[in-house]
Sequence to fold (425 residues):
Amino acid sequence: MVVTCEQVWREISNYLEGEVDPALRAAMDDHIRTCKSCASVLAGTRNVVALYRDERMIEVPAGFGRRLEKKITEGVQGGRAGWSTWSAWLVPVAALILIGGGIRLANSLTSNPPVKSPLAELGHDIPPDMPVVVSVATRTFHVAGCDFIHNKDTVRTMKASEAIREGYVPCVRCMRKYLSVARGPAGLDAEAITADEALKEGDGD
Amino acid sequence: MPEPNLIVNNPEPVVDRREQDLIARVQRGQHELFYDLVRPYERRVYAAALAILRNEADAEDVAQEAVLKALANIRQFRAESRFSTWLIQITVNEALMRRRRQRTRVVESIDDHRDEEGEYRPRDFADWREIPSETLERKEVRQKLAEALGSLDRKYREVFMLRDMEQLNIQETAETLGISIASVKTRLLRARLMLRDLLASGWEQGWFSHSPVGKGNKPW
Fold:
């Protein structure tokens, strides 16, 4: 293979990189051996690379390293300070959450909890002192003797106001007259019974 | 006579146990050791930023930002690449972003986006001899070389800086600048040949002589 000067110039950088194939490299070597111009190009290019690769070619401003170290130190401490600031806020925030949770818990014990069933309602005009039977399992309260008391082994007796406060809802059967469902759907209305009826039915058992 | 040995090689990642240990410790949270990790490369970080921004204050600012960014992302560093390459790539990205924000050098950017057309033909065929590295002890020589590099178009300067000064390999250079390997090779060839011609004129002006700068100090 024979190469021209132009080919040598075109490939001189790849030659220095070791990225020409052996045949081309041999041809370039042959050419450069006899061509002063291309020998000059190779020697000059090699000089350029060697000079600029020297670490001394990189000059930094006085104090650069010291300022960089200081910046890193500040960055590291800043990160920790950030954590400290954050953690300093963490304690009161956690305390607020705990207090809030405590208040919510206390409220759950002293105020009416949300009614879950769409049919369940708190009732109206229920005599607060009326004795009722609460079913812990179904979370309802009934007139004593109501046939619709389930899980009778978990019942307790208390005042209606206490039952309401503890989150129990009136039985749609025996407490019907205190519920708006009395004016509700016909099917439900037809099956509904009054507390008195419930008492009578209970007495009949 | 041409030197049979290559002057340019592609350095493979060198297993540096001390550096690996430092990286692992910093990744585990010992951030106060980060400067020890960065110190060997701090000059190269600055040089990379300066080659792109060409302003010392901006270069130092970006170098600091890049190092802090590297610290913030140290857990993402993977051992398959060299730490120095990773650091330089972060620096170049930071510097390029800074330059985009500055939106300066409009004229140069037009020129820089022009495709490489035609071939660069060397202009000087003097008989070169090896320039002794001792000449770099002289500040004026370093200054002249820096000026020569600074006179190149941006696209040539950046490729040359990453490949020959920062010693990234061709592929890393391409990835860092977001250009093809072929473009890196083309620009590198031109940059080296242009600098060679500039240095040749420097010979004539006595840059590399031991005597004061002036004519008549050619080594050939």
Notes: DSSP finds ten helices and no strands in chain B.
